């Protein structure tokens, strides 16, 4: 009975919040509270409730939702709360057109709204057709992309990458959805984005922040970053604590090579490495050898890693 009451109350709160949300106009500034005293009092009550629930460690996921709602409502305005209210997108009902960047190919796609998506080698995406509907939707199936999104408050831009969705109005950001890596990573370069999975708001990013979502544990890590657009466009790769098989795929895609393992156990060896697409492949492999004690052989377009 208690559980039922909690979810009944949750639905009531959501309905009230949604009604409030749709009374506002995204195109003009607004104030959600009648005065500063009401705003302060509401914020204190919500945060106090959150702290009490966190201390009891009961209904942890439910109160992560409440915490996200409090932060969004108080600090992020209409955009953040729109992201919180957005339900799981109906991807199955969409018609999608697929694009892929081949090995060694850096591809640029211009969308009907003048937004641009840059694909690194091996990246695969799908774009909803027609593109401009209630939302503008893209699926990142695999790989890494950089998006420059045209501002359009009437049509939020959504990127679905496996278990998470990133929502923006207009901004520049990078998403890495490498199926061989443990984390899906969203890096914000300018503007503001909201990231969520099917059930909960994961975070709202500000410029120079990176959100990492672990596929298995579904935990979230937020870091600061100094990464620049120019670095990405110039082909800088930063692989941080990824399995060697992820490096092998990224390296192979960047330099149009096939990477194989002499010992299968090496596939999950964690490695960290940085390189540019303009580097000579042998120099990168020498770096891997120096840092992680790996040997290699190059036979034409094939690389064999070993110990």
UniProtKB/TrEMBL annotation:
<keyword id="KW-1133">Transmembrane helix</keyword>
<keyword id="KW-0472">Membrane</keyword>
<protein>
    <submittedName>
        <fullName>Ferric-dicitrate binding protein FerR, regulates iron transport through sigma-19</fullName>
    </submittedName>
</protein>
<feature type="transmembrane region" description="Helical">
    <location>
        <begin position="62"/>
        <end position="84"/>
    </location>
</feature>
<dbReference type="InterPro" id="IPR012373">
    <property type="entry name" value="Ferrdict_sens_TM"/>
</dbReference>
<dbReference type="Pfam" id="PF16344">
    <property type="entry name" value="FecR_C"/>
</dbReference>
<feature type="domain" description="Protein FecR C-terminal">
    <location>
        <begin position="237"/>
        <end position="305"/>
    </location>
</feature>
<dbReference type="InterPro" id="IPR006860">
    <property type="entry name" value="FecR"/>
</dbReference>
<keyword id="KW-0812">Transmembrane</keyword>
<dbReference type="Pfam" id="PF04773">
    <property type="entry name" value="FecR"/>
</dbReference>
<feature type="domain" description="FecR protein">
    <location>
        <begin position="99"/>
        <end position="193"/>
    </location>
</feature>
<dbReference type="InterPro" id="IPR032508">
    <property type="entry name" value="FecR_C"/>
</dbReference>
<dbReference type="GO" id="GO:0016989">
    <property type="term" value="F:sigma factor antagonist activity"/>
</dbReference>
